[in-house]
Amino acid sequence: MTAAEYRDMTAVELRGKESEAREQLFRLRFQISMGQTDGIKKYRATKKDLARILTAMNQKNRAEGN
Q1: Which helix (H) or strand (E) holds 34?
Q2: Is 35 left (phi over 0), alpha (psi -120 to 50) or beta?
Q3: Is 90 exceeded by the pLDDT of residue 21?
Q4: What is the DSSP letter of 2?
Q5: Contact 20, 50 (CB under 8 A)
Q6: How does DSSP classify residue 41?
Q7: 3-class secondary structure for 42-56?
Q8: What residues have CB less than 8 Å from 52, skipping those under 6 apart?
Q9: pLDDT at 20 over 90
Q10: How far apart are CA 65 and CA 36, in angstroms?
Q11: In the chain, where does DSSP find H-type helix?
């Protein structure tokens, strides 16, 4: 998903996406440690998605605070 799509989500939806991304990162780390090379690209993409989610959450929190 793009950053704009994350910005359009509600805080509850973002928290759900965050937990899903963290769970997926855990699973991918396990796959990588077992030697499956498919997980590396997915791992990097998921990390970037998690960063986008956290950025959107921080922007929402700052907007609500002002």
Answers
A1: none
A2: left
A3: yes
A4: -
A5: no
A6: H
A7: HHHHHHHHHHHHHHH
A8: 1, 2, 3, 6
A9: yes
A10: 44
A11: 3-7, 11-33, 38-65
DSSP 66: -
Whether 5 shows a pLDDT value over 80: the answer reads: yes
Q: Which fold has domain 3-65?
A: Helix Hairpins (1.10.287)
Mean pLDDT of the chain: 91
pLDDT of residue 38 exceeding 90, the answer is: no
Distance, in Å, from the CA atom of 54 to the CA atom of 50, rounded to the nearest integer, reads 6
Output the CA–CA distances (angstroms, integers) from residue 50 to 12, 34, 35, 56, in the order listed. 15, 23, 23, 10
Which residues, 6+ apart, have CB-to-CB distance to 15 below 8 Å? 57
Tell me what pLDDT residue 53 has.
Answer: 97
The domain ranges of the chain are 3-65
